[in-house]
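Demo today. Your pick:
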Amino acid sequence: MNPNANPTLAHLRFNMIEQQIRPWDVHDPAILALLGEIRREDYVPQAHRALAFFDMELPLGDGSVSGETMLAPKIEARTLHDLQVQKHETVLEIGTGSGFMAALLAHRAASVLTLEINPALAASAAETLRRNGVSNVEVRNADGSKPLPSGPSFDVIVLSGSVAKIPQSLLSSLNVGGRLVAIVGEEPMMRTHIVTRTGEGQWSTAQPWDTVAPRLLNFPEPSRFSF
């Protein structure tokens, strides 16, 4: 049975889109349709499945690593909206988590490489994506704070979590015309940065909205002095 045929799920999904996502300036009909099509509940841990459509972060994994969460639906939707991913583009995601953002990106892009530092989460996300027929995503168990050994470049880079500062190595991994999105700063105030590579050694940055998200592991933190 198609879960979208379940009237309760259909109602919750509709409310999520209309009450959470549209008010966050997500109006692109194609993205709204995609959010109605991709079954978010299939990517939520079983213990929290009833909360799949709520405006909140959901814990992932076994709790052994702090900050492992599935971002709130409006954050994922606005990120997808602002990036305007095209069908010919390649995407790098850092922080696979449940695999839901990778699934959304995969339906917009040519291919997605998504890196997850937690091996159990990487394996679970890969299986969830396979089970849902998403074939153009590679899930790799890797530390996204370290440069990829082969040094590839991408049209889109998504950091699915927050950092204190965007590493130059990631900015340099963008193709000209490529975009990187990251949530930058420290609690209680963080801003989303969308960085576009405009030329060789040239980037421009927009900061369109505020939010707060858990840290991605192993990215540099600012020095703190104690007296």
Q: What stands out?
A: The radius of gyration is 17 Å.
